[in-house]
Design brief:
Number of strands: 20
Largest sheet: 6 strands, mixed
Shape: globular
Strand content: 25-35%
Distance between the termini: 25 Å
CATH class of the largest domain: Alpha Beta
Oligomer: single chain
Bound molecules: adenosine-5'-triphosphate, magnesium ion
CATH architecture of the largest domain: 3-Layer(aba) Sandwich
Length: about 425
């Protein structure tokens, strides 16, 4: 668990809130599924149980606008208590998918179930889902406390219960001191915390967040990522989160679904996606990669031999439909390229083009005889002069060969991170 300076008091507030959720199951109107999600703190999350693995299900869901397919034949199960992130480029269908789950859009085809029941005829306010948007969407004329109380008042929670629950929700996001202020008297990060407290106050079973940290600066965004993760772990609430930011997706999620052109092209754990991308698009979208073009010379089981321009050759893992003579795109992570090459299956002589200092590491730019420049992650203490010859290498297992092809929307694999 990540810790911050405030973590112990935050944890106490959250534990208290989780306990109170158990004791007040019946108080929130429409809360029949909400109590279950918050009835145990994180330790009690019952992952892996068949019923819980399908807490949310999309079955053959499609969304079309005229003849444009915004979402294509989506099949997806979300486990109870899971933190699932939708990651993908602009226009890939993330918000549309979230909106269908929230009830703001209806699928053109297919079924969405929540806790085993179709939500087709349920309006958004009856789905017991909390929403947090990028632009906070707070009521400007209401105080912070009244904003947070709003979902409880519309659910006809008794006045006597509202006060303590608002206080607890504000404690959870450390804003109890600001309860009488108006949203305009708060910073962006504080406003987003109010939006979060408002989404959690009625103990929803599911919280949907669409780029909730997109408007915050980098430092605040990283701080809020830690807080959100802590709140998720303490409450055990199911979160479906949308972002374009791959580092945010990797640090926060149990699983990440990669969207491309209205479809999920791969779904998996952050390390699974990082280490075993299934397509060149995923390899280029998650983390940093060196992309090299080549032609398959031979295929041998799950490995292949690839010829690079100017005749260099490398062995690689064959991913997907790889056939002799076909063009492929190779992907090698900068941290998987070793200097010295002693433990490598593939060794190349390169020339140092430059070094970029990053504090905890350096990025070496190394030019292959083919002219291609590779980025290599090296120790911060390494001293190599521009023009120096260097021996580089990588293992077969660290080089992945994908069928070549330009990804839709003009996105191609590259040597930099895309986010
Ligand atoms: N009401 C609508 N009518 C027509 N097309 C729409 C409508 N809503 C969304 N689209 C289209 O559907 C596609 C998916 O949109 P969506 O908002 O889901 O993308 P997104 O992945 O959330 O993108 P971003 O990261 O930019 O928010 C886009 O091409 C968009 O233009
Ligand atoms: Mg969107």
């Amino acid at each position: 668990m990540v810790s911050t300076g405030q973590s112990s008091s935050l944890r106490e507030a959250l534990a208290e809130s989780a306990h109170s959720a158990t004791g007040q199951q019946g108080t929130a109107a429409g809360g029949k599924t909400g109590a279950a999600a918050t009835s145990k703190p994180a330790a009690g999350r019952e992952k892996g149980k068949p019923a819980d693995a399908k807490f949310v299900e999309f079955i053959d869901v499609e969304k079309t606008y005229g003849n444009f397919h915004a979402v294509r034949r989506l099949n997806l199960s979300i486990g109870r208590g899971e933190f699932l992130t939708f990651l993908g480029p602009s226009g890939s269908g993330k918000t549309t998918t979230l909106n269908m789950l929230a009830g703001f859009e209806r699928p053109s085809q297919g079924v969405i179930t929540l806790d085993g029941k179709s939500v087709d005829r349920l309006p958004p306010y009856d789905r017991n889902i909390g929403m947090v948007f990028q632009n906070y969407a707070l009521f400007p004329h209401m105080s912070v406390a009244d904003n947070v109380a709003f979902p409880l008042s519309v659910r006809k929670v008794s006045k006597a219960d509202i006060g303590p629950r608002v206080t607890r929700a504000l404690e959870m996001v450390r804003l109890e001191r600001f309860k009488d202020r108006k949203p305009t008297q708060l910073s962006g990060g504080q406003q987003q915390r109010v939006a979060l407290a408002r989404a959690l106050v009625y103990q929803p079973s599911l919280v949907l967040m669409d780029e909730p940290l997109g408007a915050l600066d980098k430092k605040l965004r990283e701080h809020m990522q830690i807080e959100l993760k802590q709140i998720h772990e303490m409450l055990g609430v199911t979160i479906v989160y949308v972002t374009h930011d791959q580092s945010e997706a990797l640090t926060m999620s149990d699983r990440v679904a990669i969207f491309e052109n209205g479809a999920i092209v791969q779904i998996g754990t952050p390390d699974g996606l990082y280490n075993e991308p299934a397509t060149a698009f995923v390899a280029s979208f998650i983390g940093e990669n060196n992309a090299l073009d080549g032609i398959v010379e031979r295929v041998d089981g799950d490995q292949c031999l690839v010829t690079l321009p100017t005749g260099l050759r490398t062995t690689a893992m064959a991913i997907g439909d790889i056939r002799p003579g076909a063009p492929v795109q190779l992907a090698v992570r900068p941290e998987r390229i070793a200097g010295g090459g002693d433990h490598s299956d593939n060794r190349f002589l390169a020339t140092v083009d430059g070094r970029i200092y990053h504090g905890d590491h350096q990025r070496l730019l190394a030019r292959l005889p083919s002219g291609q420049v590779l980025t290599v992650k090296i120790s911060p203490d390494a001293t190599m002069a521009t023009g120096e010859a260097i021996d580089l290498g990588w293992r077969t297992a660290d080089c992945r060969a994908f069928p070549a092809g330009v990804a839709p929307d003009g996105i191609t694999a590259n040597t930099g991170s895309v986010s």
